[in-house]
Amino acid sequence: MVDEALGRRVSEELSGWVLDGEELVGLWRFPDFGAALAAAVRAGALAERADHHPDMHIGWGRLEVRLTTHSAKALTVRDVELAGKVGKALGPPQG
C-alpha cells in the first residue's frame, strides 16, 4: 500500500501520472516511433543523472514509464521526484 503522504503528493503534483500498486505510471503518445524513442532517451538521461532507473516500454507512438524503488519494494520519494522531472521534460502523461 502506497504511503498516504506520497499518494497525496502524487495527486497534487503529478498531473497525468497514475498509481498502479506500488508503481507510478506515466504514458505518453507520439506521432511515430522516432518521437517516442527520442522521449525515452530524454527520460533515460534524467534517470541516469538521478541514479534511479525506471522500467520503460517503447512502442510505435507510445512511451510508458514505470517508477518504483525496487530495493524498498515500494514507491518512495525518489520515484515521485523523478516523475516530476520526467513530466517537466516531456509534458504531463496523456494516459
Count of DSSP H/I helices: 3
Strand count, sense and barrel status of the largest sheet are:
4 strands, antiparallel
Give the beta-strand count. 4
CATH architecture: 2-Layer Sandwich
Distance between the termini: 22 Å
Mean pLDDT: 94
What string, H for helix and E for strand, traces the elements in order?
HEEHEEH
Structural class: alpha+beta
Rough outline: globular
- Count up the domains: 1
CATH topology description = Gyrase A, domain 2
Give the radius of gyration. Answer: 12 Å
Q: In order across it, which strands form the biggest sheet? A: 1-2-4-3
Please estimate the helix content.
Answer: 40-55%
Q: Which CATH first-tier class would you pick?
A: Alpha Beta
Strand content: 15-25%
